[in-house]
Amino acid sequence: MSFGQGGPQWGPGGSGTPDWAALAEASEKRARRRKWLLIGGGALATAGIAAAVALAVVSANGDDASASDKPAGELPSSPEIPGASTAPAPSFEATTPPPPPDPKDYISSKKKDKAPLAAATFFPGTKLTSGDHVYKKGETDDTKRCASVAQPVLGRVLTANDCTKLMRATYARDGIAVTVGVAVFDTEAQAARAKRQADEGLVTSLPGDGVGTFCRTAVCRGTYNAYGRYAYFTTTGFLNGKDVTTKDREAYAVGDDLARFAFHQIDRRGRAQASAAANNPE
Fold this sequence. Notes:
single chain, alpha+beta, six-stranded antiparallel beta sheet, 6 strands, elongated
């Protein structure tokens, strides 16, 4: 049976049953054709995405926000790209600020201890306050003839160690008076040696300016010490002429107060000169 040219041909025997095998084969060919078309189209789409990513990478690595449309041959070579410098990185040397001057250096040698020095400025004011104790200041003096204002034993020690000046000041409180003597030497070693040798000598007491005579015939207490190129001494006694004994704790306390005061004045002198040197370095 025929439906005309180009129509479907039925199988042998003219039974009218379709050739299912031929139809399935034709259908399978058409399915394979569509599958390859889809795969081919997908590959093209993937290639497009890859190109877009490449463009985005070029844009991100460039100096401008948009990608360059120049061919690769016109792009700058590696040495011309900013940031590719081969110059060494800058280096910095570690610096440490110099240590502050040591105040003791300025009172240990004549070469550095150059501030003016006199009894009037070393023992300032008209009184001294130490804790809750207030001392009236009496007479002050200074001399280059150190042995002339010291008892014989101490005078010989000062002379042997080349004392260049001795400053004195007297303070009094509650019937007790003390004369502080500060001897000046060129070096720390001379002052230390004088201190070691002066364990039996006394600075001569200095009365005057409201403080009576003391420690001329009575037994008095003495102290001896040194700091830097200075040796300092105290002579403590009663204004009524009584001897000082080991039981007179108040007299001992007065002498110790004035010895500490002498030390602090020497130390203050060193600190003032060290501070001036730090603020005005050479």
